[in-house]
Amino acid sequence: MKILITGAGGLIGTELQTVYRGHDLLLATRGEARKPEQITWSAEDGFKPEDLERLEGLDAVIHLAGEGISGLRWTDDKKAAIRDSRVKGTKALVNDLFKLEKRPTVLVSMSGIDFYGDTDDEVKTETDKAGDTFLAEVCKGWEAEARRAEDAGIRTVILRTAMVLSSKGGALATMLTPFKFGVGGVVGSGKQWMCWITLDDIVRVIAFAVDNNELRGAVNATSPNPVTNEEFTKTLGEVIYRPTFLPLPEFAVNLALGEMGQTLLLESRRAIPKRLTDIGFEFKLPTLKEALEHVTK
């Protein structure tokens, strides 16, 4: 297959390159293209006009690109970068796909479980409405731009992705440091729900979405077993044989990290992958303990 991947240098994109080794890959890069498989792309302007010919005859596009949402406090500039990299970037990509004579069969575009906002204890499936948080608004705009590809006859799958568990990077890699030193603990009340998926399984979901012609529209790309922060903390401590008795109070999260901390650490995300399970997808690592044992070994 001939496949274009944006965001190919990130955690998921790097793993996808391994999965699709031997296929004809085009890797969109924001910098100068230094390898034959690379092609210059920007969220603002898309591809250079002279490069569009390289996109002819694509079988699939996997759109992963987006500004990281974690780190320090969200400034106005950071929030604009988060929004624009996703909404404007997807708009630019789809506009370029419209220009092709031979368009790809499928576009798999990322979104996030954040689409549902703060879910409290309510379980969310793909038919539920969007929330009203900053990230929910970003996801709505992001998805709307991806859905335009359907107008060009491109089957479009939008993966609402959860926190990806991997020791190679991402949120878990950041968490492991304090936990390994015995200073990990429950965040806030610990009752907030967390959605998660392993790197192995998110890559399998993406490949499944590329291959399965029945799948289109929004799909929750998350383990079928969300957990509370308290359960996540306890399980991680057990798996790496470390105590988890030092809590991080809500006021400390808000004081240190502001809106970003409130959103990412204290709000609930409780979604399940109803469409994937209904269509017969089987998760390799569906429960948290086996997932953490796998990624931390």
What does the secondary structure layout of this molecule look like, with pairings?
Blueprint: E1 2-6, H1 11-19, E2 24-29, E3 38-42, E4 46-47, E5 60-63, H2 76-98, E6 106-112, H3 134-147, E7 155-161, E8 163-165, H4 170-180, E9 193-194, E10 196-198, H5 199-211, E11 217-221, E12 227-228, H6 229-240, H7 250-266, H8 274-279, H9 288-296
Parallel strand pairs: 1-2, 1-5, 2-3, 5-6, 6-7, 7-11, 8-10
Antiparallel strand pairs: 3-4, 9-12
Helix pairs in contact: 1-5, 2-3, 6-9
Question: What tags apply to this protein structure?
Answer:
297 residues; alpha/beta; Rossmann fold; two-stranded parallel ribbon
Report on this model:
Helix content is 38%, strand content 17%. With 297 residues, the protein is an alpha/beta fold. It has a single domain (2-296), classed as 3-Layer(aba) Sandwich (Rossmann fold). Helix 1 (11-19) packs across helix 5 (199-211) and helix 2 (76-98) runs parallel beside helix 3. The radius of gyration is 19 Å and the shape is globular. The mean pLDDT is 95.
